[in-house]
Amino acid sequence: MSELKMTGKQLLGLGYPQGPVIRVAIDVIAEHYPAATPEEAEAVLSSVLKDPVAYQHDPVLGAIAAHLMVEEKPEVIALRDTPVDYAIFGAEFIEEGTIKQLNNAIRLPVAVAGALMPDAHQGYGLPIGGVLATDNAVIPYGVGVDIGCRMCLSILDLPEASLETQASNYQKALKNKTKFGAGAEWKRNDADPVLERSEFREIPVLRNLLDKAAGQLGTSGSGNHFVEWGIVTILDANNEWNLAPGNYVGLLSHSGSRGMGAQVAGHYTRLAKELCVLPKEAQHLAYLDMNTEAGQEYWLAMNLAGDYASACHHLIHQRMIAEMGATLLARVENHHNFAWKEIHHGKELIVHRKGATPAGKGMLGIIPGSMTAPGFIVRGKGEESSLHSASHGAGRQMSRTKAIASITAEEMRKMLQDNGVTLIGGGLDEAPGAYKDINTVMSAQSDLVETVGRFQPKMVRMADGGPAED
DNA sequence: ATGTTC
């Protein structure tokens, strides 16, 4: 795409006021004046600024004019005085600030129920590991920035011993068939039905994101995202796939909706904060009414981002499995940053899980440990007090900054060696010691999920920070 | 989490 992209600075230079009009003007120019020169765009924007009333009925520029004419801010929506009671799992691991965040969220006028998972920690708006059910309203920051961030596990017919005897082939697949780093794209990529979805044409904010989405399909991004080979141990003889208990080679991935989802999240978070002004301590919990155009649009865009994240995992797995000449025996996958329409207490609610695994009765999911600690294949017990949810991992016990400052490269190398794990990329901020003990976290949620099997990582690839790698 | 954004 070569559409004209104005910057906030340029607009302020023209005399535009601080505020939402900046974003609106950038969007309008990108969408409706793609072929204009910067000078032409500035001339148009200056005319609107000079006399917004003259443009208020203009089908394109009217949106900018409306923002220039608006002066009064919407009224601040008060939080309820009396919070709804909610369950906390593993309260002994959860910091006071995290609980305060859910205490605020549960006082939203649209909040119906909530829960905190044992890996919970502070986030923007809703805490990570937080679950919140609302009545007919969706909170963009209740889903999170990485919409549809999810896990995918493939169980393969390869012999366990091949992880050692064929180690170089497994490593080659990780190096050649995955791509990590912020902004990383495949130069030549496969087609996928998700890229044909009509939402890319029908929803304005998605129109400019199709090219990026096409390039980033099947990439993993950065942060805590990974692709890894390891050993799946099936423990439950009554498993859904009739797999014999024992060991299998598995492929596990963790990633989300990449730049496309991040842009969707950013757009609707800004919009929600304009339309729904809350007291300062709850400002990031701004919600969209599901009966409004904005709410409906977010719902469609969020679902598309979720399907896109799923397609990314499937492409990664398809390429890795083909590279190893393997056959897929079973697959488990689940979003852990998303919102769903679910019935609880006889009423349809919008259930936000921000870093929480869906755990309805009989639902399968994956809860990862760390690059050396096992992950768990789980089956939900449908516990109502957790709103059918469980943790989405072990949870950090150290911030990234603290991990980098307090864990040495030698300690991390030894930890990997002791556990027989090979790491490609990765940094000290993702060291095993930066995470809580997954076994402790699992025992804090034994009422929420049962264990079907385990996954022991053996060969891990992560982003190594800095610019995109090849 | 994201090429680090009004």
From TrEMBL:
Cofactor notes: Binds 2 manganese ions per subunit.
In its UniProt record, a GO molecular function of this protein is:
RNA ligase (GTP) activity
Residues at which Mn(2+) 1 binds: D146, H225
Reaction(s) catalysed (UniProt annotation): a 3'-end 3'-phospho-ribonucleotide-RNA + a 5'-end dephospho-ribonucleoside-RNA + GTP = a ribonucleotidyl-ribonucleotide-RNA + GMP + diphosphate
Q: Give one GO biological process term.
A: RNA repair
EC numbers, comma separated:
6.5.1.8
InterPro entries listed in its UniProt record: RtcB (IPR001233), RtcB-like (IPR052915), RtcB-like_sf (IPR036025)
Which residue positions are annotated as catalytic? Answer: H392
Keywords from the named record: GTP-binding, Ligase, Manganese, Metal-binding, Nucleotide-binding, RNA repair
Q: Which residues bind GMP?
A: 224-228, 336-337, 368-371, 392-395
Protein name per the record: 3'-phosphate/5'-hydroxy nucleic acid ligase
